[in-house]
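User: Fold both of these, please.

Assistant: Here is the first one.
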Amino acid sequence: MKKILAVLLFISAAASAADKKILLRGSETSFTANDHAVARYQKAAGDRADIIVARTQEEFERHVVDAHGVLGGINKEQFAKAKNLEWVQSSSAGVEAYTFWPEFVESDVKLTNCKVVQGPSVADHALALFLALARGLQTYIPDMETPTWKSRAEAPETIRELQGMTAVVVGVGGIGTQIAQRLHGFGISVIGVDPRDIPVSNYVPIVVKPDAVDRVLPKADAVFIAAPLTPESENMIGARQFDLMKDDAYFIVISRGGLYDREALVKSLDSGKLRGVGLDVTRPEPLPEDHALWRFKNVIITPHMASLSEAANGRRLDVMVDNVGRFAHGRPLVNLVDKDAGY
C-alpha cells in the first residue's frame, strides 16, 4: 500500500510540474524584469511554465542550458549551450543582433520582437528632431544658459514652414507609418519606401520598393530613415544617395545607425548641401567624442532614446506578458519575426 501511495504521489508531482522553463534576464529596476513584471509573467504562464529570473551573468549561464524560452536576449555562446531552446523574445523592435547570425537564423528557434509598440514614441521623437531643425531651435536653446535674447533679425535663415513639403520615409512599418501620419498632419506629402507590398493610404499615397529609392530621393525636402537593419539595408544611404537629395534637405535617422554611411554624411554636411540632420542612432554607439558629426551646428544628436516613454514601456511589457502566456499554453506567438527577412 505504501509503495502504491508513493507511486501515486510521484505521478501527481510529475503531472503538476511545469512543462516549460522561461529564463528572464534583467535587473530589479528594469520595467521588464522587476517584481511586478515577473508576477505578470508567472500569472500568464500559470502552471504550464516556470519563470526563472537571472539577475547575474552566472545565473543566466547556469539556467540557459535547459531553458525553453528566453526573455531579453541571448548571445552565440549561450545559444550553443541552450539545447532545449524554442523561443527568444526581444524587448526591442530591432533584431539585427540575431539576423546577422547564421546559426540562429537557420535554427528552428522562434524569434519575437516588440515592433509597433514603440511606434508612437519613436515617431514623436522623429518629428521633434525635424521640427527643432526646421525652426532653428538648436541655435536658441544653448542661449538660455547665458541667458541671451536674440533679436528677430538674428533668426537663423534655416527657419522653414512645413506645409507643402515632400518627405520620403524609408521603412513603412509600425514606426514609419506613424511618422507618415504625423507628417500628413503638417500638410506634408509622403512617399514611402518598403520591400513589402504596403497598401497605399491617405498618409502614404505612394510606396516604392528599395531599388527605387534613388528615384524618389530627389523629390524629398526631408528624408526619414525608419527601416530595420538587415544585410540588404546596411549602408543603403551613402554618398550617391546624399548627392541625389535636394539641396537644403533634412535627414532624420530614427531606427539604426548602420543604415547610413557616416563619413558620406559628414562630407554632405561639409559641402553645405543638407539643411539639417537629426540622429537618434549612430554607429558605433556612443558616437566617439572626437567624431566630426558633433561639430555641426545644424546637427542634433540624441542618445538612442526615441523609444523611451512610460506608455511605450507599458505596451512593451504587455506584448512580452502576452507572448509568455501564448508560449506556455502552446498558442501562436505575436510579433513573430521572419528571420530570413530580418524583421
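And the second sequence with its predicted structure:
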Amino acid sequence: MPRLLLFDIDGTLLDTGGAGGASLLDAVEEVFDIPRSQIPPLNLAGATDGGIVRQLFDHVGREMDDTSVQTYMDCYLGHLRRRLAHEEFPGLVLPGIPSLLQALISEGSADIGLLTGNVRRGAEMKLARFDLHPHFIDGAFGDDAVDRNLLGPVAMRRMSAATGRSYAVEDVIVIGDTPKDIACAHAIGARCLAVGTGHFSAGALGDYKPWICLENLAQTGQVCDLLLNQ
C-alpha cells in the first residue's frame, strides 16, 4: 500500500506572520462592532477555524447560526485575502518545504494531502500565496469538523476518493507542529512527525509522544527517508 502523508499548514509549511489571527480580529471588529482590544488572546496553535469562531461568538455573546457564521467567515476570508496580498506581508515558507515537497512528488511512492484546521478556502489562499497548493491532492479542513481529532478519517476518505487507493493507518503519517497534530494522529492510530517550527519546540513536542520530533524539515534527504522508508 502507498504511504499517505498529511501535512498541517500554519507552523509546518508556512508562517503567515500573524495574518490569520489579525484577519480573525478584523472580522470581529467589522461584523460585531467590537474593538479587538476587548478580545482575549486567541490560542490558534492546532485549533480549527470552527473552534476559534465558536470561542469568539461565545465571548461576544452572539448566538451561532448558519447565516451569522457564514457572514463572519466571509468577512474573515476577505480580510485574509487582503492581508496575504499586501505588499508588506511578512509571511514566509518554512525551511526546506519547497525542496521536500518536490522530492516527495518526484519519488512518487506517497500521496500528499492536507490535514489542517483552516477552512478549505483559507487553506487554499495561504498555500496559493506561496505557490504550494499544486503539491497537495486533497485533505481535511476546519470546515469538516470543529474537533481536529475527527479530521483524520475525513482526510483518508477524501484522499482515497481522489487517488483510487486505500490506506492502512500504519502507512499514514501526519506532519505537524503542535500537540493537537500529535493527538489527531493518535486518534486514528497513525504516526506523527512533529516539527518544532511553530509555537512549540521539538523538545516540548516530545512530551506528547509523537513518532519522531525534528527541529525543522530542512534536511530533505533525511526527512524523505523517514517519511517514505521508515
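The two ends are 14 Å apart (CA to CA).
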